Amino acid sequence: MKINCLQISTGVAFLTVALAGFDAKADTVVYDNTAATSYLNQFFSANNEFGDEINLAGSARTVTDFKFEYFANLTTLGDDTVHFRIYANGSGTGAAPQTLLYDSNTDAPGGIPLFNGLQTVDISGLSLSVPSKLTWTAQFTTSTGDTAGLPLYSPATIGGVLLGGEIGSRDDFWQNINGTWTLTRYPNGTPAGNFAAQVTAVPEPSSIALGVLGGLALLGSQAVRRRNAK
To answer: pTM surpassing 0.85?
Structure first.
């Protein structure tokens, strides 16, 4: 299976802090549900906005790269698009998406163009501060006779560990139906309502700065000890 890649660049440079030739950026994959063995050979399609609530691993919370997959069966190219968003959820268990953190219309006005087959969209060059739990969504606009949706993958291989031992995401997903966020779950959770995505992040700038200052302090103390030892 060949997967083509469409890359959307925000034009914002990656945050890098270098010390003595080392890169302190430390890109880390904090969520991954793209393993070939997790592909369920099914996809979900709807006219409304829908997507997956995910929990991130580790502590890096400045997202630099977000990849997601879609599947499309198009009769003609050029008129079909997908609109991608990232939300912070409200507080409390089961809280719906609430605060918009990223909107692909900022970088791809009118929508990201679709192509036939199973495809990957790579949104790179981000510097987006996110919470440990977020919801990412897609909203497809297709011509008559065309279909597009998000492929189902489960289980995730990297993500925050949830109660019960699940990694990264529960087996349900959110839909925005007539302005109301609604959880959707297949009967008995089969198949699992999880979609293909990979999230890469770096530590918060303050964490990087503290690390650099700590390194400088260590170097300084070592220099003092060497002078005193002479």
So the answer is: no
pLDDT in tens, 218-227: 444 454 454 5
Model pLDDT for residues 135-147, shown as the tens digit of each residue: 999 999 999 999 9
Give residues with Cβ within 8 angstroms of 167, minimum separation 6.
Answer: 155, 156, 157, 158, 159, 160, 161
Cα–Cα distance measured from residue 123 to residue 69, given in angstroms and rounded to the nearest whole number: 11
Q: What total of structural domains would you count in the chain?
A: 1
Using alpha carbons, select from 47, 82, 89 the residue that is nearest to residue 68.
82
Percentage with pLDDT > 70 across the chain:
78
Token pair in block for residue 151: 């492929």
Q: Is residue 80 part of a domain?
A: yes
Q: How far is CA 161 from the centre of its chain?
A: 16
For residue 98, what is the domain's CATH number?
Answer: 2.60.120
* SS3 track for 154-176: CCCCECCECCCCCECCCCCEEEE
Domain that holds residue 75: 4-13+20-205
Per-residue exposure over 83-92, b if at least 16 CB sit within 10 Å of its own CB, e if not: bbbbbbbeee
pLDDT for the residue 78: 87
